[in-house]
Amino acid sequence: LIASAMMLAPASVMAADLTIGFSQIGSESGWRAAETTVTKQEAEKRGIDLKFADAQQKQENQIKALRSFIAQGVDAILLAPVVATGWDEVLEEAKEAEIPVMLLDRTVDAPEDLYMTAVTSDLVHEGKVAGDWLQDEMAGADCSIVELQGTTGSSPAIDRKKGFEEGISDASNLKIIRSQTGDFTRSQGKVVMESFLKAEGGANICALYAHNDDMAVGAIQAIKEAGLKPGEDIKIVSIDSVPDIHLAMASGEANATIELTPNMAGPALDALEAYLADGTVPPKWIQTESKLYTLKDDNQAIYELKKDLGY
Ligand code: GZL
To answer: Where is the secretion signal located (predicted)?
Structure first.
């Protein structure tokens, strides 16, 4: 049976022959590092030759990498697009070269025929889950919220903001009083939280919504240095479910996180292999799951489980 299956798949489409270019944003967060680790594992598993390019969070570096992959004549491209706009020209070039592009964890504002599929979570839903959680947590009590936004112009920053505002839109007691980008990093999350505390005074801030856990972890440091108790004086909800946020939650220093799987490449490579094997065209959006974790969960155990997964 295997022999006949092998006969069915012409040698040219066997995964072992594939060379794929991966333009990764950088390593701005623990989650991003895990995505890189998992993507390399998924390629290895399939005998794929993965060409990896780290853009240090600069779009021009990603565009250069894509042009290099096209010149090399790779079989496909994986792209985690740092921002949503400015991709049409280079994606047209990839289309001209008949190289399928698959988007990982972020989307682009470009015509759908310029990419094969996008593997992402429902980023608006994540923000709404965070807003809904805070509304339940506050149970009608007044709460001034500060928000640490992700990278300006990225689809997660746009969508997670939109979803959170939807989640709190029917709660007149919840109000966002400050909102600024922390660029998805711990260092910027700390710096911006320090500025929020300085501007508002700790007593006036009831909660922090951070678009990712790394900015929340940086903010926790700032809250402690201001002599306040993170998780108690200031409630904290963020997104990614990286090990260190569960460590913070295990000691009550953060309150909730929404899980984002780092394995976007698995579904993308499955879709590519199906397409190459028999022309199956994947949907334009392959959605990954989102799961809320709170202090009711065994956060120490979750930390132990995740801490060796490449974050
Ligand atoms: C979301 C992803 C975000 C993560 C951050 O899909 O693009 O980028 O939530 C990372 O940790 O910087």
So the answer is: 1-15
**Residue of 75, 73, 59 whose CA lies nearest to 269:** 75
Rounded Cα distance, 168 and 190, in Å? 25
- Residue whose Cα lies nearest atom 6 of ligand 1: it is 105
Q: What tokens does 199 get? A: 């501007």
- Around ligand 1, the residues with Cβ closer than 6 Å are 28-29, 31-32, 105-106, 120-121, 156, 184, 212, 214, 239-240, 260
Per-residue pLDDT tens digits for 96-120: 999 999 999 999 999 999 999 999 9
pTM of the model: 0.94
Q: What is the DSSP letter of 230?
A: B
pLDDT tens per residue, range 53-84:
999 999 999 999 999 999 999 999 999 999 99
Cα separation, 27 vs 34, whole angstroms = 9
3-state per-residue secondary structure call for 286-298: EEECEEEEECCCC
Q: Is 74 helix (H, G, I), strand (E, B) or coil?
A: coil
Rounded-to-integer distance, Cα 97 and Cα 231, Å: 52
Q: Is the ipTM of this complex over 0.95?
A: yes
Question: Tokens standing for 97?
Answer: 């070269």
